[in-house]
Specification:
It contains 14 helices and 23 strands. It has helices at about 5-25, 45-60, 80-95, 115-120, 130-135, 145-165, 185-200, 220-240, 270-275, 290-300, 355-365, 405-420, 435-465, 465-490, and strands at about 30-40, 65-70, 75, 105-110, 125-130, 135-140, 170-175, 180-185, 205-210, 215-220, 250-255, 260-265, 280-285, 310, 320, 325-330, 330-340, 345-350, 370-380, 380-385, 400, 425-435, 495. A hairpin with a 3-residue loop joins strand 2 (about 65-70) and strand 3. Helix 1 (about 5-25) packs across helix 14 (about 465-490) and helix 6 (about 145-165) packs across helix 8 (about 220-240). It is globular.
Length: about 500
């Protein structure tokens, strides 16, 4: 006689069906693939890129199962790793004919073979960890000494600005290692500067010397805060860069007080991974050379004048700028994509530190009516993002880059500017590569261990407990199904342990 109401059985049945549905994608495996993405923010990935990939593969008689365009890259799937490697080499030659001028990142990848009808339901396989899928492992050391020096540089610049605004005359403010030194001419100046530092610079611990000098040392609490922020910002920067590889479930985590571990499952090209990790984007502000010779050089009808350089503009033209750098990306504290309040065009809003705001205000005041170029450098190559005419003095430390960019480009530029400036330098101190064959072997062994272990338990249960053992074995099978389904729905990373 049935002791339970029908609705309880219905709930169990629905749960089992849903679990089976969301566990199903794990049976389809993964396809070897090649991913083409932009190596510079100015390179567009669009349907024309898909057409070019198709043409390159067709010219080399390489058959692709599917070529698809997503938000930031083109992905081509293949039946075997041999076809994948051939396609990677062909696409690398086609998209980057000059190794010194890389415009696209062509990287190996693995993509799930989940059918469209399952993908439309949000069903995806579990992510595989480094030990199952293969990939690369890096350990990076963060230079905390340099982070503290940068903080001391900022404090010294802010102190100079504040002393100038308060009318306190001094003999110079300089950074010496991780300390800030201030020279005063007399006891009154020394006292005024000391009071100002104590009220406005809580991060500095000051000591006085007999020759009217103040030495400010970053306090231990502030030093720990600077180091924690440097580590977090570097981790964020690495996340931004690795997103360009399209790696599923990268592992980026802190290890100890000054190290970061990066694991990229599915990436077998160590050079490409190191290239992305080392990628930076910096900004420089320079004045445009508007002399007759400079204009001729910009048109290509004359040589570049002495003390000037020529850079391409987004529209395909060239701009000749003076060598003197007025501001750099070091003076940036933030970069956010947005819109021009007047024209409603896509724009990038930059926030400068105290030194940058002061320099920018002085430059715009002294060069009204002249053009100023904002140049984006990536991998040593510069490109003029915009070269507007200065209409008047710009203060407040807020700068806008607009013109000749859409919303996607504005977001990419802002991201690169934020990600391009590490809070502290890093170096790779450990590097390992795990091949896909080892990962496949681990998967096979793991699958066999689960299968034979499950069979052994079922046989024992059925012999020892008879009919109740059969029921327990069925429940155990459903438990495994529920576990796999739950891990898949959570998009958890499956490792060998």
């Amino acid at each position: 006689m049935n002791r339970y109401p029908l609705w309880k059985y219905a709930i169990i049945l629905v749960a089992l069906l849903v679990s089976a549905l969301y566990a199903l994608p794990n049976l389809y495996g993964e396809s070897p693939a090649v991913q083409v993405s932009a190596a510079r923010s100015t390179v567009r990935i669009d349907p024309a890129t898909v057409t070019r990939v198709e043409q390159v593969l067709a010219a080399q008689n390489i058959q692709s199962n599917l070529i698809q365009l997503d938000a930031n890259s083109v992905k081509a799937r293949f039946d075997s790793t041999d076809e994948q490697l051939k396609a990677r080499d062909a696409l690398e030659r086609a998209f980057n004919p000059d190794p010194a001028d890389v415009s696209h990142v062509v990287a190996l990848n693995l993509l799930p073979r989940t059918p469209n009808w399952l993908a439309s339901l949000g069903a995806s396989p579990m992510y595989l960890g480094l030990d199952l899928r293969g990939g690369v492992h890096f350990m990076l050391q963060v230079d905390m000494h340099a982070a503290l020096q940068r903080r001391a540089d900022v404090l010294a610049a802010d102190l100079r600005t504040l002393l100038r605004e308060k009318g306190v005359r001094h003999g110079g403010v300089n950074r010496n290692g991780q300390t800030v030194e201030l020279r005063a001419g007399d006891a009154n100046t020394l006292g005024a500067a000391r009071d100002l530092i104590r009220t406005q610079f809580a991060d500095l611990q000051i000591t006085e010397t007999a020759d009217f000098r103040l030495i400010g040392t970053i306090s231990p609490e502030a030093a720990r805060r600077v180091q924690d922020q440097a580590l977090k910002q570097n981790i964020t920067t690495l996340h931004n860069r690795i997103n360009e590889l399209g790696v599923a479930e990268p592992v980026i985590q802190q290890q100890g007080a000054d190290r970061i571990v990066v694991q990229l499952p599915g990436v077998q090209d160590t050079a490409k991974a190191k290239d992305i990790l080392g990628r930076t984007a910096t900004l420089e502000v320079r004045m445009v050379d508007e002399s007759v010779d400079g204009q001729a050089a910009a048109r290509g009808t004359g040589p570049v004048p002495f003390g000037a350089e020529r850079y391409p503009e987004r529209g395909g033209q060239f701009v000749v700028v003076k060598r003197e750098v007025l501001l750099t990306g070091e003076n940036l504290t933030d970069a956010q994509a947005g819109f021009d309040s007047q024209t409603q065009e896509a724009a990038v809003h930059l926030t400068l530190d105290a030194k940058g705001a002061r320099v920018f205000r002085d430059v715009t005041r002294e060069n009204v009516g002249k053009r100023m170029a904002i140049i984006l450098f990536e991998k040593g190559r510069g490109e003029v993002v915009t070269a507007p005419v200065i209409r008047g003095e710009i203060g407040g430390g807020r700068v806008q880059i607009s013109g000749s960019m859409n919303t996607v480009e504005a977001n990419d530029t802002a991201l690169l500017l934020r990600a391009g400036s590490l809070a502290a330098p890093m170096e790779i101190i450990e590097e390992r590569t795990i091949g896909p064959s080892l990962g496949a072997e681990n998967i096979t062994k793991g699958f066999h261990s689960v299968l034979w272990g499950f069979i052994a338990i079922v046989v024992f249960m059925c012999i020892y407990y008879a009919l109740f053992g059969v029921f327990s074995s069925i429940a155990l099978a459903f438990n495994v199904l529920l576990l796999v389904s739950l891990l898949s729905m959570l998009q958890a990373t499956l490792t060998l342990p």
